[in-house]
Amino acid sequence: MPVLLLTHRDCALHDMGEGHPECPDRLRAVWQALDRQEFADLIRDQPGEATREQLERVHPADYVDAILRIRPAEGEMVALDGDTLMNAHSARAALLAAGAAVQAVDEVCAGTVRHAFCATRPPGHHAERRRPMGFCLFANAVVAARHAQAAHGIERVAICDFDVHHGNGTQDVVQDDPSILFCSSHQMPLYPGTGAADETGCGNVVNAPLPPGAGPDAFRAAWEGTLVPAIRAFRPGLVVVSAGFDAHARDPLAQLRLAEADFAWVTQALCAVAEECCGGRLVSLLEGGYDLPALAASTAAHVRALLHG
């Protein structure tokens, strides 16, 4: 079955200023990487914006209102915290990123594609229920999960996060929801300071922190020995992946030592457990990755594995 690529040019209009690591060039690097002939079989589409109803399954209405009201004049920015800013195009980009997650779920659950990858920004896994942070405005992975439950009757969803930073926002939203499993590998200590192994939610959170300098052996052991078995035991009806590539050895914001082959390996492992548990239904969302050549090569490895996994 084919793989769907969802992306939108307007996501590159969101800009947090010169020198900010979460920059429009990240998306351009991904587009260039996926424009090669080997990816010609991808089905490509542009997402629409998420609806208020879809966002409010995750965030309170007043939070959604507050984010969407921030529409500064062209050339101006509003700082939400020291790392997270919005320009004139940020609200629309955030709606498109969440909308891509929703459309990916619709297509995968309809059986028109087996896997989907959303090349959008801003990312989402640091956005808490009531707080934007860490470059993130809406918790896109949870938007996807809750949409799958509400619109497609999927009872259990597994969110799997291999970004180098812990997805504190995802954990904040789902930690009291036993119908969603959150599994994460990440460097610790590191921003945002959460993600200890003893943070287990209501029994639905499995964190596998890795020390600075850890490489492929520790990363693969965490997924093979702890995280994938937890997903398998949960028996999800859908797998949602928070695909961050900043655990790459070249990334400037952290100190893990992974390479493209490790992202291909974990993608294959997640495709295999999705095949075993839920007919292969898997939706992947771009999160971090701040060295542009490493991001491009790692994303290509990830999508290549989705095509063949």
Beta content comes to 15-25%
The secondary-structure element order is EHEHHEEHEHEHEEHEHEH
DSSP summary, beta strand count: 10
Mean pLDDT: 98
Low-confidence segments: none
CATH topology: Arginase, Chain A
Q: Which superfamily, in CATH terms, is the homologous superfamily?
A: Histone deacetylase domain
Counting DSSP H or I runs of 4 or more residues, the number of helices is: 9
* Rg over alpha carbons: 17 Å
Helix content: 25-40%
What number of structural domains do the residues give? 1
So what's the overall shape? globular
Distance between the termini: 10 Å
Taking strands numbered 1, 2, ... along the chain, how are they ordered across the largest sheet? 2-1-5-10-9-6-7-8
Largest sheet geometry: 8 strands, parallel
Structural class comes to alpha/beta
Task: Give me the CATH architecture, please.
Answer: 3-Layer(aba) Sandwich
The top level CATH class name: Alpha Beta
Brief descriptors of the model:
single chain; about 300 residues; alpha/beta; Arginase, Chain A; eight-stranded parallel beta sheet; two-stranded antiparallel ribbon; globular
